[in-house]
Amino acid sequence: METEKRVHLLDPLVAQRIAAGEVIDRPASVVRELIDNSLDASASHISVVIEEGGIALIKVIDDGTGIHPDDLGIIAHSHATSKVQTLSDFNTLQTLGFRGEALYSIAAGAHLSISSTQKGSLGSSIHIHGNTYGEIIPGGPTKGTVVEVKDLFAEIPARRLFLKRPSSEARMVKNAIIEKALAFPEVGFTLTHNSKESLFLPPSSLKDRVLNVLKGNKDIVASEILSMKDAGEHFSIQVLGTEESTYRTDRKYIQIFVNNRIVDEYSLVQAVTYGYDPYLPGGAFPYCYVYITVDPDLVDFNIHPAKREVKIRNRAEIHHQLVLLIQQTLQKHHYTSQHREDKVRDTSPLFASEAVSPYTRSSAPSTPSGGYRKQTTAFPAPEHFHDDTWFEKAKKIFSDSEKREEQVQEVGEEFIYHGQIFSLFLLVERNNSLYLVDQHAAHERILFDEMKQYDGTQPLMIPLEFEVERSIDTFLLAHSTMYESLGILLERTGELLWAIRATIPHYREMERELVSSIQNFSSGSLEELHKLLFATASCRKAIKEGDAIDRVQAIALLKKVFKLDHPVCPHGRNFVVEITKDALYRSVGRVL
Ligand code: ADP
Ligand code: MG
Q: What is the pTM assigned to this prediction?
């Protein structure tokens, strides 16, 4: 019979190697940890030197604050750190490191040498391997720290087996440096592989850093990148993203940084795609770097040793704000560039467009009508009529307007739909005014209202089961009726397990997005939830800018629009511009 195994404490070296496996799995993760340490030491330049993809050698040189000679003797012990002391320090944590495990883990699988000089003390060096410490010997760099890691996993064949070819490992090291460099543009970075420089990123502005990093991959010029900023109560957001004409067909370049750390945060990547969605063709995604700064007491990075995961308590709020920020910026950008283009394009002498003379500034008094924005800006004045072809043009204009007359008949008396312009605006004549209706925003608004007054859910053929975090589980137990009131029937199928049983038709074919929203939402506000679900469903379904829209669709939409008291989109933007007949007459120097 087999003898029963008894409990014993693991040999420290075995324990060290087991723990190390969670932090260090390849050269790139060593580089990541060492750069974090250099950044925490306020370095302004960090050089990384590797040989054989980092398997033979990794050397990180910084000009940071250095290490006190007396600290070298315990520096690679488990939980040896200068960054936190008490639990409450986690509420104000500003450093990238806090676990005191990196050097400990590196020493477990390689030969580690540290040489450092701190201001006011002499430089000193130490060699550490496993839990064997060499002597602390005098001598170090003039400033900062040099850390050398040699023969990674030489004694752990199981780990070595998972390493790729040196060139692939080198590529991963480079990417690890780029991720750090994108979060710290004011710090200079270099990488040398087998004595050849493979990356050079001088200290720069964030925008230049992004451009530098993208260089070689896709040459994007500064004017193609939009810079966006916003702040909420406990967070701020900065986004550098490409304008709508520059995109790719995957989400690879949508990267999220939270408190200077790159994180795998699907819901925020999704927020970026929602924000861009109305402005990009289907299946296209931007290059977009999102930097979120959250109060340290609202985030927890202590989930995974490599800190790629984060729990953000106000994630739903950030998600929402991010969608809005991107949409509003793109909308503004789109209109200004469209306007610029029009100025360049319109060289027709019949209606000169540049000249804005004082008498064209019309701010005609107008009759109040429920919230529609009045057009008060200038119309160009008719100028010189030197065009010999003007008669031909005029004939064409008249024959076109005759065609429109015919169309008027079909529409009825309420309003006359004249067609679409700039692939966005529906042109309507109604009660002595001309209306320009933003078709995308209008359709979003109508959808929004319809979703609020849904009638009847439809069961899913197969209920869609998904897992949630404990906090969301508790939240759903208390709040699943909130979802029900918005047309989503949820059922708890087990511990931390929920399923969508039925939804209103608006959500069909977007159940996955729905699940991701549910997994991330934990605010008790019905209004907030409505907005979130709406963002999930509508941005996909709404008629996009640039979409062709036929007369029947347009008229159906307009009928609904003119029934609204307040034509603002769910994001609060006005989407109907009214120009009165009176103002139009005045702008050409006529009176009604
Ligand atoms: P952590 O970063 O979580 O504190 P590490 O094992 O990475 O744990 O590092 C242990 C300690 O060594 C750090 O807290 C820091 O005091 C010191 N240290 C490591 N690298 C450097 C460096 N490049 N410059 C200054 N101090 C460093
Ligand atoms: Mg560290």
A: 0.63
